[in-house]
Amino acid sequence: MQEPDIKDNLKQTLNTFKSTGCRLVAVSKTKPVSDLEEAYAAGIRDFGENKVQELVEKADQLPGDIRWHMIGHLQRNKVKYIAPFIHLIHSVDSLRLLKQIDKEGKKVERVISCLLQVHIAKEETKYGWDEKELMDFLYGEEIKGMKNIQILGLMGMATLTDNSETIRKEFKDLHRLFTQLKSQPLPEQVQLSELSMGMSGDYLIAQEEGSTMVRIGSAIFGARNYT
Q1: Residue 149 in 3-state DSSP?
Q2: Which domains occur in the chain, in start order?
Q3: Which residues contact 166 (CB under 8 A, 6 or more apart)?
Q4: Structure confidence by residue, pLDDT tens digits, 54-77
Q5: Which H or E run includes 15?
Q6: Looking at residue 227, what is its pLDDT?
Q7: Would you say 198 and 206 are in contact if contact means Cβ atoms under 8 Å apart?
Q8: Facing residues of 46 across strands?
Q9: For the whole prediction, is pTM greater than 0.90?
């Protein structure tokens, strides 16, 4: 199999960005440190991982100015390993997880930035808050006691389908919710600036629908390694 030209792939990917305000998170899960070093040399500073152990191991070997993004389902008992250094947790899919992040943030004396993952896909396998749960939390009492989290926005994963209209509708619905929340008074722990939606197969649609941050892996690093 031909090795991907990461520098060239990055250049081609960034040339397709329609929104100048949209940030690229290079999804480096399953990829060797050498691939990340190549992307780093090409100017990338935001890297996304979906496994805590892999993220921690790579962070130990790579430059300290990298902004690490946790994009996969996060188990509560693993939060403590990334709490000291994580830049942004995209995948906060429940109140129980958010409470754990707040608890671990207090231990390491950090305010940890988070995105609330909203369930927008038709697939039951996707995690996330529904709209009612989100509203109840943001305007409820429990958030008031959370001093070590900062909610910077929302994240969503579209249905895995070739139907672009289905994907577009899901992104559009999430952007509507994001815009609606931004127009209302929110707790001090909530400063909505980021809307993380879009991956290698659908990031162009996501950008058109208002994404501020796209998570792209295979278009940069080639197919994932599962061995």
Answers
A1: strand
A2: 6-221 (3.20.20.10)
A3: 122, 158, 159
A4: 999 999 999 999 999 999 999 999
A5: helix 6-15
A6: 45
A7: yes
A8: 67
A9: yes
